[in-house]
Each structure stands twice: as structure tokens, then as C-alpha cells.
Amino acid sequence: MKEILVSLPYFGPISQFKELVNPLKVWVEKEDNFQKQTYRNRIYIYGANGKLSLNIPIKHLPKTKVKVHQKYSEVKIDNDDKWQSVHWKSLKSAYQTSPFFEFYEDELSPLFRKEYLTLYEFNRDCLETVLECLQVDLDFEYTSEYNKQPEKIADHRNLINAKSRISLPEYIQVFQEKHGFISNLCILDLLFNEGPNAVAFLKTM
């Protein structure tokens, strides 16, 4: 059985779910450090004006003379600015006319009503909810220690990097006629546009 190692993003880009849909053992990284410019606290969706970034605000550690790395699993969310309401309204605005938004709305909306203290806990629930929506039953576990160069396992943790440009096959998107196809958006873009066909699409990529 093929084993892979992935990071835990905010929902995650389509390129990561491409690696998750085949029968395999999945290890989800829990012990890494938090890094900026990654999908750990941001997603890209397709809005009426094109590609739109939604970011989860986090509480940063106090600045010190010595750079301190913060463990991802310990990063706390800054809930003062009511980001969940903003993100859900943005998702509804972008996808309420898509073929399958209403089909998954009741499963996803509770994620934006429950207050989470840590980014890790929220992202964990996002992953598990999307897997349920996709009806993908994975054998996965969370890591207990950080291994920079794991052996005998396919390391896909680099897919957490939001700066990477990855070209993927096209599918029909809500605002495609306005701005063209936008590749490798958040998995929700594929889910809302392709619905139950999303897994079959991922497996052919």
C-alpha cells in the first residue's frame, strides 16, 4: 500500500486532494512549525471579480530579539474580527449559483458557526468534513513527531505552499466565461461545481 505524508491546510488546494483520493495510507503532519504564505490559513476561491484570497487571522507570538518558531498545532486563531462570518458570506456569494452549493451547504456551514481556538483544530475539522462530502474513506493518522526527510513514504508536504503554481485539467467554473479557467483553487471550488463527480475527476488527473 502506498503511503503519503501531507500537511494540514485550510480545506486545501485541489492538487493536494488529487493525492488523497486513491487507496493508500495517509499521514497528516501535526508537528511542523507554522509558516506564512501557505494554505494553512488561507484559501483561494473564484469570486465574481476573479481569484479571491480568504485568510484566517492568527495570534502571533510577541516579537523577541531571537526568532522563535511557533508549532502549527499551537497557533491560536484571532476571533476578534469575526472572520468566519466574512468567509462564509464570501463562499455563498461566489458559489450559491453553482450546481452543488446547496447540496453541501448544511455539512459545511457549521464549521463557520462554531468558534475554534486553534488553527489546527479548525483545519482538522475542515479536512474531515470535506472527506465526508467527497465520500472518501481514508486510512489516515496524524504524525507524533516531525521528520524532515521521511523514508519509504511519498512526501507531499510541499503542496501546502500557496506560492506554487500548478496547472490542472479544466472543469466548468461559475465565472469562467468572465475570467477564464483558474487552476488549483480550494477543493470547495471543485466540490461545488462538480459535486459527486469530483472524486472521479480527481482520480483522472
TrEMBL record:
Pfam families: WbqC
Domain of life the protein comes from: Bacteria
Listed name of the protein: WbqC family protein
